[in-house]
Design goal:
Order of helices and strands: EHEHEHEHEHEHEHEHHHHEEEHHHHHH
Largest sheet: 7 strands, parallel
CATH topology of the largest domain: Rossmann fold
Distance between the termini: 44 Å
Number of strands: 11
Helix content: 40-55%
Bound molecules: nicotinamide-adenine-dinucleotide, magnesium ion
CATH architecture of the largest domain: 3-Layer(aba) Sandwich
CATH superfamily of the largest domain: NAD(P)-binding Rossmann-like Domain
Structural class: alpha/beta
Oligomer: single chain
Shape: globular
């Protein structure tokens, strides 16, 4: 969002519009695959420049060949030989390593889909932002870890940031000319995750398998666990604060188990504008890819008569302390939100490895932040290096606490 007036036109013939040159970071993941599904169904609309993945060379090569990409990159250097042989004869160039991912992000394109999971996505996405590339941003950690730096870089380069995250995309769709002073409250909905009805005692013993089973959305492992703890919604409040210039008290969370209403804006005259749709990420992704127009998708259509009713409830702060931790980190400052994400990455992995219990995720994050606050280690970062230093320190604290717990 660069504050420019937003105009959404009706879908019209695309014949006069040249193909969109596109790079996808995190092409092998859930968002990456949904993006490539849209691309493969609309080959005349897109020219794919580069695709990246972490380790999955075969899946990346298959996708690159399918959509006719020019360049493919794996972050993991040991996967380069496998990538080269899977691409053999296709004419698609290959590279490996974190620097090669950032170089892929720096190639000139019309739009970059940022769909890496975690802080690992920040350096390459920032590289594209600095070049003024329009970003379809799924990788919310860019804003949780470094929202001030990221948005300042976008303002400097003129890069437009389009929100892919369904709640933020919903808000983006119902903003009226970005008149933020007319807004009273911005609401992000949350499904409540698979444990919405469990007591704290029942949550203590939940397994990774149960936590990975999201009721409405099919997503990567990390965001699925973050949805179960509701830390994902905590991250999304921070994300919203950077995308839409509103103070934390004008950012609200509402539990809505059907995941049909994705986000809403209440204006100062009492009007509430909401965006609805079936829970399928191809709708918000395509909204970004076609913006400021719209494009047809095969996402399921909403059948409200079949659904019958939509329900809403307030989040429970006792059973879902992650929301409080995220708001406290936001009040504490940019160092704290970077530490919050880093600690969460380590502790979600520890839970998936069965080294800590489900409730231990939020409890241990709170201890990491307390330790770092007491040590004076959460000064707001002023550079990417500062962010990465806070990130590394939070990971060290989190790993130490996991070992102590084991
Ligand atoms: P995923 O785990 O399915 O995919 C992650 C992608 O990142 C993969 O392509 C993986 O290879 C790549 N990757 C992982 N570590 C990497 C590293 N160190 N270096 C380079 N690449 C790396 O995750 P996802 O569900 O697609 O989520 C991606 C991002 O989108 C996350 O930030 C998530 O919060 C956000 N998001 C996802 C959804 C969803 O429905 N899945 C919705 C909203 C926002
Ligand atoms: Mg979301």
């Amino acid at each position: 969002m660069n504050g420019a007036p937003i105009q959404v036109e009706n879908d019209a013939s695309r014949e006069d519009v040249p193909p969109l040159r596109l790079t996808v970071l995190g092409a092998s993941g859930s968002i990456g695959q949904s993006t490539l599904d849209i691309v493969a169904r609309n080959p005349e609309r897109f020219r794919v420049e580069a695709l990246t993945a972490n380790t999955s060379a075969d899946a990346l090569a298959e996708a690159a060949i399918r959509v006719g990409a020019r360049h493919a990159v794996v972050a993991d250097e040991s996967a380069l030989d496998a990538l080269r042989s899977a691409l053999g004869g296709s004419g698609i160039t290959a590279a490996a390593g974190a620097t090669a991912v950032a170089e892929a992000a720096a190639r000139p394109v019309d739009m970059l889909v940022a769909a890496i999971v975690g802080a690992a996505g920040l350096p390459p996405t920032l590289e594209a932002v600095r070049r003024g590339t329009t970003i379809a941003l799924a990788n919310k950690e860019c804003l949780v870890c470094a929202g001030d730096l990221f948005m300042a870089a976008a303002r400097r380069s003129g890069a437009t940031i389009l929100p892919v995250d369904s709640e933020h995309n919903a808000v983006f769709q119902v903003l009226e000319s970005a008149n933020f002073d007319q807004i009273e409250m911005l609401t992000l909905t949350a499904s409540g995750g698979p444990f919405r009805r469990l007591s704290l005692a029942e949550m203590r013993d939940v397994t990774p398998e149960a936590a990975l089973k999201h009721p409405n959305w099919s997503m990567g492992a990390r965001i699925s666990i973050d949805s179960a703890t509701m830390m994902n919604k905590g991250f999304e409040i921070i994300e919203a604060h950077h995308l839409f210039p509103l103070p934390p008290e004008q950012l609200d969370v509402l539990v809505h188990p059907e995941s049909v209403v994705h986000g809403m804006v209440r204006y100062k005259d009492g009007s509430v504008l909401a965006q609805m749709g079936a829970p399928d990420m191809r709708t918000p992704i395509s909204h970004c890819l076609a913006w400021p127009r719209r494009m047809a998708t095969v996402a399921p259509r909403l059948d409200l008569a079949a659904l019958g009713s939509l329900t809403f409830e307030a989040p429970d702060p006792e059973r879902f302390p992650a929301l409080r931790l995220a708001r406290a980190a936001m009040a504490n400052g940019a160092g704290a939100t970077a530490a919050l994400n880093a600690a969460d990455e380590v502790l979600v992995a520890a839970f998936l490895d069965r080294k800590i219990g489900f409730l231990g995720i939020a409890q241990t994050i709170e201890r990491v932040l307390d330790r770092m606050t007491q040590a004076g280690d959460l000064a707001p970062p002023t550079s990417l290096d500062d962010v990465m230093a806070v990130d590394a320190a939070a990971r060290r604290h989190a790993r130490t606490l996991v070992v102590e717990a084991g």
